[in-house]
Target: Tripartite tricarboxylate transporter TctB family protein
Amino acid sequence: MPAAKPRSFDRPAAVVGLILVAVAAVLAFDASRMSKVALYGIGPTAMPNVLAVFFALLGFAHFVAAFRGGLPEPEAADWKAFGWVGGALVALIAVIGLGGGFIIGSTLLFAMTARAFGRRAFAVDLAIGFAIALLVFLLFNNLLSLTLPQGPLERLL
Model:
């Protein structure tokens, strides 16, 4: 396989860096507007500020990589896999929005995402996704007392 021609400027890395710095700015702005009531050392703004610093550093690292040059040409996008993942997200939103619940939506999300990564055993992936979604639902519902979107299966539990 011949060596890929190095590029002098990586536009996608610069765009990702710009997006990360923008997310950091939004996080820092939102954290500065939070009420800072805390009876202990760390208040509610601590984690958003940590994330803002992390995203800013990551964004600047992307800028350095973009302008340093010498990066190989990226591979072509796999639009079929992108379609499967996009369809999986749409299916999750639709199932939850139409009252199907977390378990069915997450099962479809898992199986369709596995298909996007090239796995062909769709029925097995549905079973694995169902088992994982059921476990997650039970952990959130029973152990953490947090409610996930309810559907017909969740009402049986």
Observations:
- Residues 79-156 form one domain.
- The mean pLDDT is 89.
- The two ends are 55 Å apart (CA to CA).
